[in-house]
Every structure is written in structure tokens, then in C-alpha cells.
Amino acid sequence: MFAYQLAVFFQLALLLLCLVSADSPTTVLEYKEWKSIGCQRDSTSERALHHLVALSSPNMTVESCLDSCEAGGYVLGGVEFGDECYCGNALLYDHGISGDCFQACSGNASELCGGPDALNAYQFADTPFTTGPASNVLVYKQWRWWGCQVEADGFILLPHGPLVPIPLEEMTVERCLDGCEAAGYNAGALENGQNCYCDLVVPNGTPNPDFWESAGIFACAAPCLANATEICGGAIDKVLNDHQITTYVTCDFDSEALC
What start and end residues bound the annotated signal peptide (predicted)? Predict the structure, then answer.
């Protein structure tokens, strides 16, 4: 009798497990050319993927999010908190792996769409991408890192830019400085991970980098949107009273004394 009851118990337990498993959302491992790269930790103040597609969407699915990212030309996409969608070209911060991707998508209860500060992330067509932490590029060609400078509200330290604008999501230190050089400038700066500025500076002239106000080496910590290993000023997703820019000068024009 006991053996019979035990057998019935195990059968019921197995049936219950199957029912629970059938109703539980699961990770979409592949979709078109997209592949899962796991559950990534995220932060509201330091987003792993910079471009917000949708927030509090009642119809969110993995497929709809990744279709939007692909249409925008991004190589990474991710869903979070059940109803949010983000895209990017780099995992901007070194948040690491999360175990909190447990929420069903608002538009498809059978799919996982991340969790609180947790992102079900995907990579497009095995395209290479970078992730943090970021550090300063100290030397590039004839360019030298000049530090992290304060740029007060309403004042642009270097008011010009490359002749050909650089798409924000493609910003790197190298792209910015190449653009400044091509435009004939010998000073360049990056801000907010995505903005590039240029100008012509002369020793003992105006503007004079010797008198730029330093913000401190740690004030510039925003990763470049296209290369998360490089710092592009401050401060992506953070609110600051002043702007911080990562500056560079070159010795190849008439400013050898600056280097």
C-alpha cells in the first residue's frame, strides 16, 4: 500500500513539475541572426545599452525589440523588466552577469524579458563588441591626452567639430581625433560618450589649454558608445552641474610647447 501511495505521489509531482515548466517563461536563445549572450546586470544610472527603444511597453517581446535594434543598425539588443527594450554597439559598463532575468515579456508570457536591473542581452550575427571597464587613451598617432576638463553650463570649451559629423553610436576617441585632424584642428575633446569637439589652440594664446580648469582625473568616466574600453568624457546617464570633457592636443601643428 505504501509503495502504491509513493508511486502515485511521484507521478503527481512529475505532472505538477511539467505543468509549472510549461507555464514558465524561457530564454529565447536565437532569433534570425541574433543569439543570446546571457543575462547581464544593468543599472538605471549606468545603462549597459545606451539607446532606449521602449519603456513600459504592454506588447514587448524579444522579437519586436531585436527587430527594432536591427532596423537601427545596432549589434546588441536587450529586454529588461518585462517591458523595456534597449540597443547599443557596446556593453558600456562592466556590471557582470546577473541571475535576475525571471520576468515574462509583457507581450508574450512564454518568453523571458529580463528583470529588475537585469537584461536578457543578444548579439547580432556574431559581430564583435566591447565591454568595460573604460580607461583613457593616452596616445593616438600624434595626439596626446590632456586631461579631464570642466565645461560650465552654457560654455563650450572647443566650439567646433569634424567636417563630417560622426554618428553618436559610432563614437570612439580615434574617430573623433581623426575628424578633428581632417578639419585642421590641433585640439579635440569628447563628452557624454558620444560628442566630439575640436578647435585650434596656440601656446599663450586664446584658448590656452594651460589655463583650462581640470575636473580631476576621475570625473571623466563615461565609456565611448562604440568602444566601451575607452573614456569619452563624462557622464552618460548621470546628472552633473558642470560638463566634463576628455581633451587631447597634438604636436603636429604649431603647438609643440603644449606637449
Answer: 1-22
